[in-house]
Design a protein that fits this description.
The protein contains one helix and 15 strands; from the N terminus they run ββββββββββββαβββ. Helix content is 2%, strand content 34%. The protein starts with 20 loop residues before the first strand and ends with a strand.
Length: 169
């Protein structure tokens, strides 16, 4: 595991947006896997700062899994349910910023394949709770030491083929 240390500066305003749950439904006719396509989200709005994003079981033909292939808006928490899948391609970047609320980070019970960048910042507790499969072939950026940030539950598996950057301040 390659480690990089850097100084992290808190850049969010003190006015924190109200959280909302945003459920992936996928399958939009225009771009069925595109994170930035409003038709792929219940309620027709792409998630943003402070939102709690839920990726449900993608095991049926009606719910196609999301793919991130570019920089997408920051979110407050990412929850991948059992049977859910998320791929962050080499050109993709997602920042999960818990804004120091009583939640935050990534809760993975499904499959997360990281080929690009995933930043997990300011979670209340663990940055990553993993009972699923997390394959890191890209860059995972944490604002704390990895040994303190990543917690495996049960048979959770983390496969390291990329790098972890720890922003220690």
């Amino acid at each position: 595991m390659k480690r990089k240390h850097a100084v992290h500066h808190f850049t969010h305003s003190l006015a924190t947006p109200v959280s909302r749950y945003v459920l992936w439904k996928g399958g939009d006719a225009v771009a069925p896997h595109c994170w930035l396509e409003p038709g792929n989200w219940q309620g027709g709005m792409v998630p943003g700062e402070g939102d709690i994003v839920v990726i449900p079981d993608c095991g049926n033909a009606e719910i196609l899994p999301p793919v991130i292939d570019c920089r997408v808006p920051d979110i407050g928490q990412l929850r991948i349910e059992k049977g859910g899948h998320l791929a962050i391609l080499p050109t993709g970047k997602l920042c999960v910023d818990g804004l120091n609320r009583d939640y935050g980070g990534v809760v993975n019970h499904g499959t997360l394949v990281l080929g690009g960048e995933l930043h997990i910042l300011h979670p209340w507790d663990a940055a990553l709770l993993n009972s699923g499969i997390f394959i890191n072939k890209g860059t995972l950026v944490l604002d704390r030491w990895a040994w303190d940030a990543v917690h495996h539950i049960g048979l959770g598996r983390y496969i390291e083929r990329g790098q972890v950057e720890e922003l220690v301040f």
